[in-house]
Specification:
Distance between the termini: 15 Å
Largest sheet: 8 strands, mixed
CATH topology of the largest domain: Rossmann fold
Number of domains: 2
CATH architecture of the largest domain: 3-Layer(aba) Sandwich
Number of strands: 14
Shape: globular
CATH superfamily of the largest domain: HAD superfamily/HAD-like
CATH class of the largest domain: Alpha Beta
Structural class: alpha/beta
Number of helices: 11
Strand order of the largest sheet: 5-4-3-2-1-12-13-14
Length: 274
């Protein structure tokens, strides 16, 4: 069995921590013979160290499927945007009132001038999410210069908007000018923009190709809209009870909430008799 789990709103609690109960269940699942895979919209840098340092996790599929990291080996796959397209999309995003997170080389870069309480309020970033945001983002003095320097290594743009109307306009514009690129969302006020063919569904398929996994052996857990493509790609999927309605609709079942230890739930469901 391969257990593929989303992080935010699924494996990670609402306070953005990972519980000892989940960590213990991951260890026991590994001992039962299960392979554990984390699949997330986060960059590798943002994943909690308790997870990146965990020897019982085999792979990390991050930036919504743009990159795959093998525990103990390093990066084994990446699908970044073409530099010219990345620059054009960045220009479009910058033409709106936005808080842009630049995902490059496994790290999330943000504009230092907007990385403040007034900026978080302006771009409607949830207060519950702020501790994690402050912990894991890397403020830079000149985001435009970083974009220029890293144009060939852009994994994803994660963008927050001051106006929901502008968010809708921006999404429509990118979808019109770059119809093959992937756009999804994991929060009410963000857009996540990836290269063509990049999403969690293609990411899990690429992982199977790299690791030699059978897609039919995967059981997936998720909670957000960016998990939809993963659920569509496999046969066995469980939405957490706090998941968005769209994901629940296509799942095979409903699990516990992200605050009730999803890996412990999985252990009890699949190995409870052991």
């Amino acid at each position: 069995m391969i257990i593929a789990t989303d992080l935010d709103g699924t494996l990670i609690s609402s306070d953005t921590s990972i519980s000892n109960e989940n960590l213990g269940a991951i260890k026991r699942l590994f001992e039962y013979g299960a392979h554990i895979v984390l699949i997330t919209g986060r960059t590798f840098y943002e994943i909690l160290p308790q997870l990146t340092d965990c020897p019982y996790i085999d792979y990390f599929v991050y930036s919504n499927g743009a990159c795959i990291y093998k525990q103990g080996s390093g990066l084994v796959f990446s699908n970044c945007m073409p530099a010219a397209d990345a620059k054009k999309i960045y220009d479009i995003l910058s033409s709106y009132e936005t808080f842009i997170e630049l995902y490059t080389n496994g790290k999330p870069l943000v504009d230092q001038a907007k990385f403040c309480d007034c900026g978080f309020e302006r771009y409607k970033i949830s207060k519950q999410f702020l501790p994690e945001l402050k912990r894991s983002r890397i403020p830079v003095e000149n985001l435009n210069a970083e974009m220029e320097k890293n144009a060939a290594d852009i994994e994803m743009f994660d963008v927050f908007f001051a106006s929901m109307q502008e968010r809708a306009e921006c999404r429509n514009r990118i979808e019109t000018e770059f119809p093959d690129f992937q756009i999804t969302t994991s929060l009410d006020n963000n857009l996540e923009v990836m290269n063509q063919g990049v999403n969690k569904g293609t990411g899990i398929k690429k992982l199977c190709e790299i690791a030699g996994y059978d897609l039919n052996d995967i059981v997936a857990f998720g909670g957000s809209k960016n998990d939809i493509t993963m659920f569509e790609a496999i046969e066995n999927s469980y939405a957490v009870s706090n998941a968005c309605p769209e994901l629940k609709k296509i799942s095979n079942g409903i699990a516990c909430s992200n605050d009730e230890n999803i890996m412990l739930w999985a252990e009890n469901k699949f190995y409870g008799s052991k």
